[in-house]
Amino acid sequence: MIKKLHQMGLRSGHMYVAGFAAIGASICSWLISASAEDAGIDRADRWGIFIGEWAPTLFMLGVALRMEETHVDKEDTSEMAMFDKSMGGSSRARAGV
Description:
Distance between the termini: 33 Å
Number of helices: 6
Strand content: under 5%
Order of helices and strands: HHHHHH
Number of domains: 1
Helix content: over 70%
Number of strands: 0
Radius of gyration: 24 Å
């Protein structure tokens, strides 16, 4: 799932911004609900908590996307791969591997 999100163009920075926006939206929804509705402070608390629960999930997705962005295959960092890149060919193909 994380790989697919990354391929779709979603980056870790987007998720971090969304996490902070969820925190701000949680505070705003609590303030608006507490002042505009006659349902009492309990409903305002529920709105604030409901939206505030999104932030950890969004931050977690940001961390997972950051790991995807910085992921390096072990095969690509091998000396043979570096040699192949510098020589412009595939030594494995020449070696019959």
